Structures are given as structure tokens and as C-alpha cells.
Amino acid sequence: MRGESVVFDRGKRAVLLALLLRQANRRVSLGTVVQTLWEKEPPESAQANVRTYASQLRAALCRVGMPRLESPRGSYLLRVDCGESDVEIFAEAVTAADAALATARLTDAQDHLRRALEVWRGQAADGLTGHGPLKLALDALDEQRAATVEKYAAVCLRLADRSTTHTSSSPIPHLRMLLAEQPLRENAWLLLMRSLADTGDRAGALAAYGSARQVLRRELGLEPSVELRRAQEEILHA
């Protein structure tokens, strides 16, 4: 926020910050914080520990000129101004992209989706171990990002079909990152194959099919879907 960094290790203080950011401008009860920080039976000192973590977070924010953490009775609230949250920026860009797609403005949709993905640097709260409501919220964010990567790739392919020149707006890096995290997403493999083939990298597209087949057989004991096999045949005979 404001170009300043507040850095914690990946322990419970960082989980508390992630929880309060996800619930920005809303009260989070002490009980919810305890449930999020400890999956099983919390220690007897849990509430005292939470107060210590909150005090450390408040001090860190004040050091960079952001006295944002409030403590209404029995709860915590983190103030975040409009436009400061990456989650908010992401959601607004995706909404704008959907509106553009609804009126067939593919270039505008591509720009909005690219902007949405630019705020991501990996998985939501990567490396943190949260429980309860926070885990559900972070899992939902990761799924929204995955769906946005696939939507971006599909839009790029539709635009490529209309043009004889390739642009610098390649979805390939986003697809590779997504598949490194979620290798069982067959639609992402399909989009990666088609995106590689579209750039003229036929060998890369076929290698992607081989990787998809390998991981699906190893993890699920299944062969690739009909769509993936059909795409492989089309690339082989192109």
C-alpha cells in the first residue's frame, strides 16, 4: 500500500494479515481469528497470542505511516482505501472484461483480462497455512484466477484467428504457470497446445500433449479427453 512494504515471515502474523486483508473494512471476530490461525484445538494462550500478533501488525503499519488496524470490541478491522487492494483491482478488471465480451469487443476484453492477471505473482497468499474461512476464500481466489487465465487464452486465440500477425499478448506464460500449480486442468492444457501451435511451435504443442497425457495417467489413471486427442490429431496433420 502506498508503495510501502510490510513484511512478515509465513507464520501466524502473516496469516492474520491475509485474513484481515481478505475481510478489509469489515469486523473480524476474535473467535474467527483463532479458528483461522489454529486448525485443531487452539492453545490456552490463543487469544493472548492473537493480541500480540495484532499489536505487532499495528506497529508495523504505523512505521510506514498507515495506522490502519482498529480493534472494535472483541474484533479487528483493517482499513483499506479504494483501489489499494489487488483483489479489488482484479475483480473490477474481470467484470469489465465480461462486459466487453458480452458486446464482442475482444480487444478490450483482452486488455482488461491482461490487467487482471498483472496483479498476480503466484497463488493467493502463497505459502501461508490458513484454515476455516480464510482457506475457503483463498481457494476461491485461486479458482477465479485459473478461470481468468483460461478466459484470457481463449480470447487471445479468437483474436489470432482474425489477424495474420501475432501480437505480444501471449497467454502461454500464464498457462504454464497455472499448469505448474494445477496440472490436472485439461482445458488449460488444450489452450496451451492451441496457443503454441498458433505461434508455429508445433513441436511444443505436441510436447504439451505428451505432458498432459503423462500427468493424467499418473495422477488419475485416465487418458486425455476427446478434445485433447482431437487437438493433437489436428496439430499432427496441420
Automatic annotation (TrEMBL):
SMART domains the UniProt entry points to: BTAD
An individual GO BP term: regulation of DNA-templated transcription
InterPro entries according to UniProt: AfsR-DnrI-RedD_regulator, BTAD, Sig_transdc_resp-reg_C-effctor, TPR-like_helical_dom_sf, WH-like_DNA-bd_sf
Any one GO molecular function term: DNA binding
Entries under SUPFAM superfamilies matching the protein: C-terminal effector domain of the bipartite response regulators (SSF46894), TPR-like (SSF48452)
Ranges of residues in domain Bacterial transcriptional activator: 85-236
Keywords: DNA-binding, Transcription, Transcription regulation
Protein name per Swiss-Prot or TrEMBL: DNA-binding SARP family transcriptional activator
Lineage: Bacteria, Bacillati, Actinomycetota, Actinomycetes, Micromonosporales
